[in-house]
Amino acid sequence: MKSEKPRLKLWYCGITNNEVRRKKEHNRMKGVTHWKCFEANSKIEANLIETFFSNEGTLNQSSIGGAKHNSYKVYVFKITNPKGNFGLNGCPLTAKNLLDYLLE
């Protein structure tokens, strides 16, 4: 269950195996400030950290097992556009971004 802690309500936490790509995707979707990324010891540990932040009130939904097996980098950032697009990869669906997404 999501916490109602206002201090973290505009923050997001996730895990990835490619920090540069993920930051670009989030910046396109939501706007990014105060980006911080660090390496966990394993995907399991990364998931636990993501779940901790989610329980503390960040906007992400933790998803155990939802990331690739080599995703052990944990990132946290402040969202600058909370009403941003949250469609396909954070963008409105167009033929171009659908192809870009599928061929990535």
Summarize the structure.
The protein is an alpha+beta fold and 104 residues long.
What does this protein structure show overall?
By secondary structure, this protein is α+β, with helices and mostly antiparallel strands. It is built from three helices and three strands, in the order βαβαβα. Helices cover 33% and strands 20% of the residues. The chain has one domain. A three-stranded antiparallel sheet has the order 1-3-2, sandwiched between helices. The chain starts with 10 loop residues before the first strand and ends with a helix.
Please specify the SSE layout and strand pairing:
Elements: E1 11-16, H1 19-29, E2 32-39, H2 43-56, E3 73-79, H3 95-103
Antiparallel strand pairs: 1-3, 2-3
Please name the defining characteristics of this protein.
three-stranded antiparallel beta sheet, alpha+beta, 3 strands, 104 residues, 33% helix
Distance between the termini: 33 Å
Strand content: 15-25%
- Average pLDDT for all residues: 78
Percent of residues in helices comes to 25-40%
Low-confidence stretches: none
Characterize the largest beta sheet: strand count, sense, and whether it forms a barrel.
Answer: 3 strands, antiparallel
Number of helices: 3
Tally of distinct domains: 1
Q: Which structural class is indicated by helix and strand composition?
A: alpha+beta
Kindly state the number of beta strands.
3
Which strands sit side by side, in order, in the main sheet? Answer: 1-3-2
Overall geometry comes to globular
SSE ordering: EHEHEH
**What is the radius of gyration computed over CA atoms, rounded to a whole number of angstroms?**
14 Å
